[in-house]
Amino acid sequence: MSLLEVHDLTVSYTRRGRWGRPHARPAVHGVSFAVEPGEVVAVVGESGSGKTTTAQAVIGLLPPNGRLDGGRILLGGTDIAGWSQRRLQAVRGAQIGLVPQDPANSLNPVKPVGVQIGEALRIHRRGDRRTITRRVVELLERVGLPDPEVRARQYPHELSGGMRQRVLIAIAVALAPRLIIADEPTSALDVTVQKRILDLIDDLRAESGTAVLLVTHDLGVAADRSDRMVVMKDGRIEERGATRAVLGAPQAAYTARLLRDAPALRAPRFLSTEVTEAVEAVEAVEVPEAAGAARAAAATGATGPTGPTGTGAVCEPPEPAVVVHDLVKEYRAGGRPFRAVDGVSFEVPRGTTHALVGESGSGKTTTARMVMRLAEPTSGSVAIGGAETAGLRGARLRALRRDVQLVYQNPYGSLDPRQSIADIVEEPLRNFGLGDRPARRERVRELLDRVALPAAVLGRRARELSGGQRQRVAIARALAPGPRVVVLDEAVSALDVSVQAQILDLLGELQRDLGLTYLFISHDLAVVRQISHTVSVMSKGRIVETGTTRQLFENPGHAYTRALLAAVPGTAHRPAGQDGTAHRLPAREGAARRLAGQEAGR
Amino acid sequence: MRPGLILSWALIVLVALWALVPGVFTGYDPIAGIPAEKLRAPGPGHLFGTDAVGRDLFARVVHGAVNSLSGAFVAVAVGLVLGTLLGLVAGSVRGALDEIVMRVVDVLLSVPGLLLALTVIILLGPGTVNVAVAVGVGSVASFARLARSEVVRVRRTDYVEAAFGSGGRFAAVLWRHVLPNSLVPVVALAALQFGVAILAISTLGFLGYGAEPPTPEWGLLISEGRNYLATAWWLTTLPGTVVVAVVLAASRISRSIGREDG
């Protein structure tokens, strides 16, 4: 008998229409699957596919406007669909544990974490106060938190994201449930932390035989961690089966497309332009320090674009599009200075993409903002197209803005909700006084066409568009003043994989057609690998390694780079030899341990 | 649309019509009374009854709407415009200016509204317009505080930074992005403040600082009816009910505005 069997599950959400008339919108149609004891079943899908709704329905925690319309949920043979909340309370925690998505908001900020873990035990009356206290410490130790007695007395804000997620896992496993539902348990975490959390879930499962229902948008995670998977789209199951079989020979066209688009799994060829070839010719194999990186990058700029064609030419080497030298940003935190960016130097040859890679807090976004002059550097210099940007004010600063444009991570926040799309794209043209009104309108149409949006969106508001469409609008706005450099700050991180792939293709096409230079800020190595020519890896405000993308991925010099690469999900299933990257390096264990130490020290 | 909200809008529209075309709703003269018909209880002839000099109370309430409502409009306009402007400047410039403006606002907020309005009236002298201005000045502080908090929030959003990034000048970005996106809660407060202003103007009218008798004004009506509280309950109760109903309607509408985009 299966541990969990879901038959023909149908869920709908009720919304109030324009005149307050409620209407039901189905979110999940006839979904059936089973979870056997001790196995991991991944529910994979893009946003809006109904994967989270399915998980919520199983544990009886649908939002107030959600309704279970039909189907059976058999937990160990008992149908729990339609049980009252009261009856379900005996099931939750004891038989089904839940690991929620967002570690930042899932813990009560005014209670120590130990009390919150103890709550699960108290509610289900497992022992007196002394036993509970002891059990809490055991649990904290079990989920790999150092100094569990101290942690138990700490408040959530004193813990890092990874540690909070461990606490949430401790709550989920407190009563040794037979099934854990993990809803995007690592989506909000850095990739190295994600790996350790997933390892922890794996360990717990191996030890106690708990089954896991893993809800994720990340095919890489599903590929690495699940025994079987269920692929969902628009509330229906597209495909289900053993993970290996689904990934090896997908039956549904949708699964095949997802696999093609997932950057971690598609492992394309490196961008191999003349520029990178030239760079490789001159560059040292390993560049351990930032200073060396700058020198190497300088060499890149000098030989890059002219290298293959300008043999023996005596002409001046063209200026690199972006030169960043010894950039420092210092914040004062509680009286003592904190260096968010510490002596960062790099150069970006014209017409290429340079990626700044790092985990949260590495200073990559701050660096990008200083390049844009949206933040003032404490010291150091930035030159765009040979012109220093320091000290520019008023009209000269605005002139710089024509040359350098930024695309933000979150397409939901970077477009004014009250403006029409036409106004949004036209805004830079108005600001810079480029052309009269009809000419500007014409240019807006051109730009929308350029980013493959229909003219029908002109009059719409941002909220009427999908995430991918919004990001296209943001790109069109960035292109409007005719910039030479575009800074892409996690520009595809908030998008579903298939949309992500489309936007990356668009960016590549625009670069080739318009000769744009990109500074690409990302935490996602798989995406970086696809789009960039050269990469700098940042950690704690410093650049630890710089090189061409191929070099960095195939022969990473720094331990941190190796740890990052090893943590990219989906690597376990990539056919060997396709990319030649040695992902499972023995050195990664040491690096991972050191990172764990950093996490604990926070 | 909830029924309560529809009712609220209907009431506000009705009262606005009273102010615009009072003649449609009543045939009686609000000033000249018929002594023979004094102190009649509410009935078919006189919907709200009559007062001590035989004037139809309903006619006086209908004709009084224009005084009370226009006063409330002026009061809200003064508060809204001045308050939003102060909040916008303080919230977007920040620094010393922000500190100064907000400390002044703190001082204004610490003085009871009615006392503040009375102080202003003593400075300006009594009169319908002056009362309205006085009530408006009293609400500047809360408008400024709310507008500033919204401006500070919007100022930090990506789209405002993007607007500066695409070459926008300070004033243009404020006008095009910051102001429109900060206004929703401010407008909701304006609707709420409309009710409060009617109440405040009526209070000041009751205290004798507003319109001069025999002008029909809601606060003044209640004040005049006070002398007959024991014998003619309708003189205070019915105009009072109208005021309460309008204030409640404004507050209900305000709540719906706050919810729409939030």
TrEMBL record, chain A:
Family, per entry: Belongs to the ABC transporter superfamily.
UniProt protein name: Peptide/nickel transport system ATP-binding protein
Residue span, ABC transporter domain: 4-259, 322-565
Keyword field: ATP-binding, Nucleotide-binding, Transport
Stored Pfam families: ABC_tran (PF00005), oligo_HPY (PF08352)
Coiled coil (UniProt feature): none
One MF annotation (Gene Ontology) recorded for this entry: ATP binding
Record-linked PROSITE patterns: ABC_TRANSPORTER_1, ABC_TRANSPORTER_2
Domain of life: Bacteria
Gene3D superfamilies cross-referenced by the UniProt entry: P-loop containing nucleotide triphosphate hydrolases
From TrEMBL, chain B:
InterPro entries to which the protein is assigned, alphabetical: BP-dependent_transpt_permease, MetI-like, MetI-like_sf
Localization annotation: Cell membrane
Keywords: Cell membrane, Membrane, Transmembrane, Transmembrane helix, Transport
Cross-referenced CDD domains: TM_PBP2 (cd06261)
Chief site of localization: membrane
ABC transmembrane type-1 domain mapped to chain residues: 65-254
Chain ranges passing through the membrane: 72-93, 100-123, 129-147, 186-211, 231-250
Family classification: Belongs to the binding-protein-dependent transport system permease family.
Name of the protein described by the UniProt record: Peptide/nickel transport system permease protein
SUPFAM superfamilies for this protein: MetI-like (SSF161098)
Membrane topology listed for this record: Multi-pass membrane protein
